[in-house]
Amino acid sequence: MSRPAKGPLVGLRIVEFVGLGPAPFAAMQFADMGADVIRIARPGAEAAPPDPICGRGRSTVEVDLKNPDEAEMVRRLIDEADALIEGFRPGVMERLGLGPDALLGRNPRLVYGRMTGWGQTGPLAPHAGHDINYIAISGALAAIGTAERPLPPLNLVGDFGGGSMFLIAGMLAALWSAQRTGEGQVVDCAICDGAIQLMAMMHDMAAAGWWRPGRASNLLDGAAPHYGAYECADGAFIAVGPIEPQFFELFRKAIGLEEDAHALRADPRNWAALRERIAARIRTRPRAEWLALLEHSDACVSPVLDMKEAAEHPHLAARKSFVELDGLMQPAPAPRFSATPTEARARPRTTIALADALSKWGGRSA
């Protein structure tokens, strides 16, 4: 028997059409915060790649949307919903008779969340793409990597940062508006738009003359010796980030750098030389020794951990930042709420029949 939902979004009903990456992740966040999310999936279809974690907390219904009777049952389900999430190319939902005009005509308060890479309009809207393409045109990819070439930052900046998180924020804003006005709307979330928003601080820095063209040329892009990763004697890495002078002073003294390090770090022309001096010092001890000396201080030093190591880190363990569900170690619901706390463990996924889903939600729109 599934556990009752907990969290600030208990009572919110969302229909999710199963898709890729950022749309399921957004739906996972809603479910983690207590929303009742029903996933619509094609019969026999499995997520590619499989999503036992990003698919958690929801009930899945297999539906043949080309079957008129089943499609009408889905429309009736959406009549009872507060919101919808879909991540298909523009026009797909319209061809299925499930576009926003049709559904908002039946359920005027519906918030219709659309997650795409290029958005619903513009010359590239009908074309395929992936995270690397969306962040390439946003200016983000050009700023990330080595001096020689850009490096994709996993798909965190585009799919999940510029995509999922902006879809969640947009839908919550639209739900607030619908609650006050009774009128729903379409939320057109394009990953390329969100990735541009994530570059806002870099645009600020450029406007102030603090951002130089070219990768590995700036404070936060790998150029600064006091903001980067260093290899220890055992081959493990630590992350070093004492940007403020008082924090750098703690770091400098702890690793045995001379006092002229402050003057060297103040001039980007000396960064390469200072980086070599820091690297030489860090290579003299294994990571555990540096962490014992620096981690619990304001020197801004942390271990660079892989996913398994992260789950075992004492700080994250104390906060219960990882949970085990269905035999898988995975990220715990976040953020934390004081008055309406979420479930300490994420809810598992379930499978139900379409008729049962409709019965479960039935009657509210009458």
**Assigned CATH superfamily of the largest domain:** Crotonobetainyl-coa:carnitine coa-transferase, domain 1
Order of strands side by side in the largest beta sheet? 6-5-4-1-2-3-12
For this structure, the CATH topology of the largest domain is Rossmann fold
Number of strand segments: 12
How many domains? The number is 2
Give the helix/strand class.
alpha/beta
Number of helices: 15
* Main beta sheet strand tally, sense and closure: 7 strands, parallel
For the record, the CATH architecture of the largest domain stands as 3-Layer(aba) Sandwich
Q: How far apart, in Å, are the first and last alpha carbons?
A: 29 Å
Shape: elongated
Structure description:
The chain has 2 domains: 13-198 and 323-361, Crotonobetainyl-coa:carnitine coa-transferase, domain 1 (Rossmann fold, 3-Layer(aba) Sandwich); 228-316, formyl-coa transferase, domain 3, CATH 3.30.1540. Helices cover 38% and strands 14% of the residues. It has helices spanning 22-32, 68-79, 92-95, 100-106, 131-138, 156-181, 191-198, 200-207, 245-255, 261-266, 271-282, 287-294, 307-312, 314-318, 354-361; strands spanning 13-17, 36-41, 59-62, 83-86, 111-116, 185-190, 228-231, 237-240, 301-303, 322-325, 328-331, 350-351. The strands form 3 sheets. Strands 6-5-4-1-2-3-12 form a 7-stranded parallel beta sheet, with helices on both faces. A 3-stranded antiparallel beta sheet has the order 7-8-9, covered by helices on one side. Strands 10-11 form a two-stranded antiparallel ribbon. Helix 2 runs parallel beside helix 15, helix 5 (131-138) crosses helix 7 (191-198) and helix 6 packs across helix 7. The radius of gyration is 24 Å and the shape is elongated.
